[in-house]
Amino acid sequence: MAEILVAIEHRKQSLAEVSLQMLSKGRQLCDQTGDELVAVVMGRVASGYAERLARWADRVLVARNDKAGESLAEPCQKVLTSIIKERKPRLVLIGHSSFGMDLAPALAVAVNAPLATDCISIGIENGAISVTRSIYNGKVNAQLSFTQVDTVIITGRVGEFTAEECNKRGKVEEIDVSWDEAFPYKQFQGYIEQPSRGVDITQSDILVSVGRGIKEKENIKIAESLAEALGAVVACSRPVIDNGWLSAERQVGLSGKTVKPKLYMAIGISGAFQHMVGMKGSRMIVAINKDSRAPIFDIADYGIVDDVLKVLPELTKQIVELKG
Ligand SMILES: Cc1cc2nc3c(=O)[nH]c(=O)nc-3n(C[C@H](O)[C@H](O)[C@H](O)COP(=O)(O)OP(=O)(O)OC[C@H]3O[C@@H](n4cnc5c(N)ncnc54)[C@H](O)[C@@H]3O)c2cc1C
Q1: Which DSSP category does 252 fall into?
Q2: CB 271, CB 296: distance < 8 Å
Q3: Looking at the chain, which terminus has fewer C-beta neighbours within 10 angstroms, N or C?
Q4: Nearest atom of ligand 1 to the alpha carbon of 255
C-alpha cells in the first residue's frame, strides 16, 4: 500500500500547530486515495506525542533518542532519510516552519527526491501529485505537478491548511534507527524567551493593529486613542517592530503571534501573507488602507479606502460620541 508520511515537529513539550495541519491534510489525501498515513515523531520526548498523533495517522513511528533533542534539523534529517529509503512513501509532508526550512532541502538531496516548498494547496489526481506555490509575495500562483517519481517532498505554508480533529486509533511503533549525533558545526544552545512587558494581544477581543501606513512613531497615539475608545489593545505588523515604534510582543503574524479576536482592525497594513497567517482567523476584519488593491481587502469584511491619518481621528470621535 502506498504511504504518505508526515514529519512531526515539536518544541518545548508541544506539537507544532503546522504539523497538525500537515497531518490533517495527509489524512484527507489518504482518505481520498486509500494510502496509509504515517506520522514520524523524533527526539527525546517523542513517545509522549504518539497517542495524539494516532488520532490522524494509521501508523505512528516513534524514533526516540535520549540525547538528540527536538531543535536541530540535522539528526532528524538522518533519521528521516533512512525511513524514506526503506518505506518509499509517495509523499512526505513537512511544515514550512524554520525547522521545516532547515530540514526539507537537505532531506530532498539525501533521498534524491523533488521538493516543492511553501505550498498553499496539495492534491493527488490520477496518481499525480500537484501543488500550488504562492510566489512573488503572493502576486503569482505557480502550479506544479510531479509524475514518474517514487517520492515527492512538500513543505506546506504555516496556517494555510486547517487542522481538523480526527478520531482514528492508529498503531504506534517504536522504531530502532541510528541517530548520528555528531554535528560539530551546529549545536543547540537553548531557547531565548522574549521578555514580556505584560501585554498579551492573543487575549483581547478587539485589536487595533497598525502597519507601516501609520508612517511614524508619533502617529501611534492616534491608534491608541481609537483602541481606548473601543476597549481594544494595540497590535501591529512587523515593520512597526523593526522601526522600534512598538515592542515585539505586539507583532501579529508568522514570526509574531497568531490572534483570533472578535474584531481585528488592520490600519495601514498591506496584507502580506506573513501577516495574514496570524490574523485571518479573526471573526471580523476591518481594513483601512489608501490602496484599494491592497491584499488585506481580500480577507476583510469591511474596508475603508482612505488615509488612516484622516480616518482614525474621525472614527474615534464618532465612537466616543456613540458611547455617550
Ligand atoms: C520570514 C519572514 C517573516 C515575517 N513575519 C512577519 C510577521 O510575523 N508579521 C508581519 O506583519 N510581517 C512579517 N513579515 C514581513 C512581511 O513580509 C511584510 O513585509 C509586512 O507584513 C508588511 O507590513 P505592512 O503591511 O505594515 O507594510 P507594507 O507592506 O509596507 O504596507 C503598508 C500599507 O499601508 C498603506 N498605506 C500607506 N500609507 C497609508 C495612509 N496614509 N493611509 C492608509 N494606508 C496607507 C499602503 O497602501 C500599504 O498597503 C515577515 C517576513 C519574512 C520574510
Answers
A1: B
A2: yes
A3: C
A4: 8
Q: Which domain holds residue 277?
A: 201-322
Work out how many domains the chain is built from and give that number: 2
DSSP characters for 193-216? PPPP-S--GGG-SEEEEE-GGG-S
Question: Is this prediction's pTM over 0.85?
Answer: no
Ligand 1 residue neighbourhood (C-beta within 6 Å): 211-213, 237-239, 251-256, 268-270, 272, 274-275, 278, 289-291, 294, 307-309
Distance CA 242, CA 237 (A): 9
Say whether both 28 and 116 belong to one domain. Answer: yes
Kindly tell me if the per-residue pLDDT of 197 is higher than 80: no
Q: Are residues 44 and 137 in the same domain?
A: yes
Ligand 1 centroid from CA 272, angstroms: 6
Of 275, 291, 296, 297, the one to substitute when testing ligand 1's pocket (max ligand atoms within 8 A of C-beta) is 275
Q: Look at residues 108, 75, 93, 68 and name the one whose alpha carbon lies nearest to residue 16.
A: 93
Residues 236, 296: contact at Cβ < 8 Å? no
Name which residue sits closest to atom 49 of ligand 1, judged by CA.
Answer: 270
Report which of 9, 29, 35, 12 is spatially closest to residue 20, judged by C-alpha positions. 9
Alpha-carbon radius of gyration of the chain: 22
Binned at pLDDT 50, 70 and 90, residue 190 comes out as confident
205 falls within a domain: yes
How far is 271 from 275, CA to CA, in rounded Å?
6
The set of long-range contacts for 311-317, using a CB threshold of 8 Å and a minimum separation of 24, is: 312/222, 312/223, 312/225, 312/226, 312/267, 312/288, 313/222, 313/225, 315/226, 316/222, 316/225, 316/226, 316/229
Q: Which residue has the cell 489524512?
A: 27
| pLDDT score recorded for residue 147 | 87
Indicate whether 273 and 167 sit together in one domain: no
Choose among 75, 70, 92: nearest CA to 10: 70
